[in-house]
Write a structure and sequence with these properties.
Elements (H helix, E strand, L loop, with lengths): L2 E2 L1 E6 H6 L8 H12 L5 E2 L5 E4 L2 E4 L7 H9 L5 E2 L4 E2 L4 H15 L9 H7 L4 E5 L2 H8 L7 E4 L4 E2 L5 E2 L2 E5 L11 H11 L2 H15 L10 H4 L6 H10 L3 E3 L7 H15 L5 H22 L5
Parallel strand pairs: 3-8, 12-13
Antiparallel strand pairs: 1-12, 2-8, 2-9, 4-5, 6-7, 10-11
Length: 302
């Protein structure tokens, strides 16, 4: 099945002209943003989460956890839930600090809430940005004039006390599901094994790209199948460097409130100028109430 995660895109020509290095850590990012703004340029971060469904990129109605917040939180050792999924961890001190750092991008640095990454990257207004790696396909098709002038690499990381750098990223994906009430479990399991096999995922990916070109490149989650897709060697190495850092967002009862109310808290701070600590604390209560209600509904232990 499919899997996507963020990577860092950058315009080599513009960064070289400005004598700027590709940021390796978040400290580098916060240093770079003012330098770009002096020239009316932007550092892009994902706000609306886009998911890839087949060959189409569509906005997700479930509003997953924002990738920028997820990266910052995970790289600092934070979690979205505590007590085995019984409660939200967004009101912990680490989560609050991460939330404040995230909202600072839009309150202190005045980044726009909405941007068209592909077009602004193409025009040069946004010469560097974090977005899903499947955007590579789209840029390759719609901006052929940029060939050789851009690249992508691993996301900025967070330096640890031992000097290593964590580059955790939240992953999204698609999956196959077998219903408990199915009367054909053996047949369903046989199909799922067949469909997710390396041979068939690779064949499907190659045929899809053969019909649609690079824009139809399939983001399969089968790593052996990925190795058979015609990525350039350097691009494949970048994906394999970032992939081990990809982390799924835990699914818990009532967890659909997490992304929704994290976004509500974010917008209350950025748009309504509310206090970040008070905002995240308030919306964490809403999340916890929903988790408690759903755990009771599903008969899960308190």
């Amino acid at each position: 099945m499919g899997q996507g995660f963020p990577v860092l895109y950058y315009r080599k020509d513009i960064l070289e002209e400005m004598n700027l290095e590709v940021p390796d850590t978040w400290d580098d990012v916060f240093t770079m943003i003012p330098e770009l703004q002096k020239h009316n340029l932007l550092f892009g971060f994902p706000i609306q989460v886009l998911v890839k469904l087949g060959s189409n990129v569509q906005e997700s109605s479930s509003l997953p956890v924002n990738p920028t917040f997820g990266m910052m939180l995970y790289q600092n050792g934070g979690e979205l839930y505590k007590e085995g999924g019984k409660a939200s961890a967004l009101a912990t001190e680490l989560s609050i600090k991460t939330f404040m750092d995230w909202t600072d991008l839009y309150t202190t640095y005045k980044l726009p809430l909405t941007t068209d990454f592909v077009n602004r990257f193409r025009s040069g207004e946004m010469p560097i940005a974090i977005d899903d790696y499947t955007r590579f396909n789209l840029i390759s098709v719609v901006a052929p004039e940029l060939k050789g002038l851009w690249d992508f690499t691993v996301v900025p990381g967070t330096k640890q006390p031992d000097g290593t750098i964590r580059r955790d990223v939240p992953a999204n994906g698609t999956a196959a599901v077998m219903l408990e009430a199915s009367k054909h479990k053996d047949e369903a399991w046989a199909f799922m094994k067949w469909w997710t096999s390396t041979e068939n995922q690779a064949k499907y990916s190659l045929e899809l790209e053969g019909l649609m070109g690079p824009a139809g490149r399939n983001p399969t989650a089968n790593l052996d199948a990925v190795a058979r897709i015609p990525w350039q060697t350097k691009d494949y190495k970048t994906l394999m460097e970032q992939w081990p850092w990809a982390r799924g967002i835990p699914e818990v009862a009532g967890g659909y409130f997490t992304g929704r109310h994290l976004d509500n808290a974010f917008r209350s701070v950025v748009i309504s100028s509310e206090d970040p600590r008070e905002a995240i604390d308030l919306y964490t209560h809403y999340i916890n109430d929903e988790i408690t209600k759903k755990r009771k509904e599903f008969g899960l232990p308190d």
